[in-house]
Amino acid sequence: MKSTSSHPFAAPSQRGFTLIELMVGLVLGMLTVLVITQVLALAEGKRRAITMGGDAQINGSLSIFALQRDIQQAGYGAAASPDALGCPVTRQFDVSGTSTTFTLAPVLITDGGSGGAPDTITILQSNTPNFSTPMLLMGNHAQTDDHFTVSSSLNASVGNLMIAVPKTQSASAGCALFSVTNDTSAATTTLSSTNVPHVAGAGPLTKWNQSAVFPTGGYEAGSYLLNMGSMVLRSYSIDQLSLKTDDFTPTSTAVTSSVLYPQIVNLQAFYGKDTNGDGIVDAYDTVLPTTSAGWMQVLTIRIAVVARSNQYEKDAVTGDTIPWDIGTTSTFTNLTPATCPNGTSKCLPLKINHVTEWAHYRYKVYDTIVPLRNVIWNS
Q1: pTM of the prediction?
Q2: Which sign does the torsion angle of CA 12, 16, 17, 19 carry?
């Protein structure tokens, strides 16, 4: 009988994947891709949230810094004599212009309203290149006079804007804005160590010299002048989700507007007042002082800005207000009770629901208390 044997080089039998194995592998691959996709989407969402949150932190920090810097310098030159604070300053540009007034105060808060709408903060200060000191009037100044006789015109320069302050304020004797001129054709119109002329003319700055801004009875000896340089009169407000400034223009009646930082949705400010004369702030409110004594009670300005992240969240992530941590001892006259109850500190709500789709963004509050140094030092 003939024996048979396998060939030593015969190939082993070959078989492929079964349909069930292919389906299991496909399912496992899809699950893996799904998990990886979800992880990447979550990581990308976190990355965007962190990045946008960083932008909000930068905008909020820079906004509070800009406000703090200006408020610290507020009142320089203007608060040199405390009894002048609160004086209404009349100004008129050109003989055919209309007279307007602003308040001689370092910081003026315009309340946005009881609903918590953004406030407006107006800052007044001198920006003379040297130092600003009051100039005492040595003689009477009639309404139609074209010069002031002073004890010393130190640091007065042509083009400086100055505020004349009456010795005694009254309904008929207020402050007035004018600019310094120098016309050597006559002694009275020549700028000297004891003479400060203010002749009206066609130039941009001389147009401020309108006799109608001075009181009918003029200024008596003992009144004084405040050197404001080109004068900083700047308002901070919220416009189109941005912090913006409106600046007084010394050469015209125009206002120069600038957008500073985006995604700032609210600005709130309070006067910090010392009501009992011990040099310590007792309460915060937005009540506008009406007398120089009232303005002397204002020692600090407390401000808060609300910055918004630019990242839109699919789900609602924020309530209609953001709590402001005001501390457990601060007294606010618009709270009931005036201090936070039960030792809590986040009890002053800041409005954000005036923003479109406000609930789908995240917010952060930046706040600070700024002392009015020029008022405190001159008191």
Answers
A1: 0.84
A2: negative
